[in-house]
Design goal:
There is one protein chain. The chain is of the alpha/beta class. It is built from five helices and nine strands, in the order E-E-E-H-H-E-E-E-H-E-H-E-E-H. The longest helix has 15 residues. 28% of the residues are buried.
Length: 163
């Protein structure tokens, strides 16, 4: 067992390691996200395996009014194929537009993830996602939201809208 500074003890064996799918944001990649999150993944290597997905430069292109997300169906198929080939995964950890995608995937309940870690994400404004982007509409998936108070791209209030 491993003891942490706050006195919590966590029993773990290799068979118990969590498998976490990591989804990058816009204009980045799996290797970029892996490098940025290295301190987190190294600190948790005994309890979790992080699998970094490299997808398209954008998970979608929003229409000028943000009501339609062009290309999102292809991105969902891309992620579905990756999960089918490399899963199962206990949870997802996503950044920026990838975190918005994580919120969409959680809302649609496309995969049996138990939790989502969403870093500087934001709520989808697409009409197709309104039903499951309301407060309390995502059921059965625990989430942890990281809010960048000084994030120049995704303001904190936008990240809070996903929480």
């Amino acid at each position: 067992s491993d003891s942490f500074k706050n006195g919590i003890t966590f029993q773990n064996t290799m068979a118990d390691k969590l498998r976490i799918l990591a989804v990058h944001g816009i204009s980045s990649s799996g290797p970029w996200l892996e490098e940025k999150l290295k301190p987190l993944t190294e600190a948790n290597k005994d309890i979790a395996d992080f699998i970094f997905l490299s997808g398209p430069q954008k998970w979608w292109d929003a229409s000028s009014d943000n009501k339609t997300y062009h290309g999102i169906e292809e991105s969902e198929k891309f992620i579905s194929s990756f999960v089918e080939k490399n899963g199962p995964f206990d949870g997802i950890m996503c950044h920026s537009q990838g975190a918005a995608m994580g919120g969409i995937l959680a809302g649609k309940q496309l995969f049996p993830f138990r939790f989502a870690i969403l870093i500087s994400g934001f709520n989808s404004r697409a009409t197709a996602h309104e039903e499951f982007m309301q407060k309390g509409s995502i059921k059965g998936i625990d989430s942890f939201h990281v809010i960048g108070l000084n994030d120049p791209i995704i303001p904190p209030e936008r990240t809070r809208s996903l929480a």
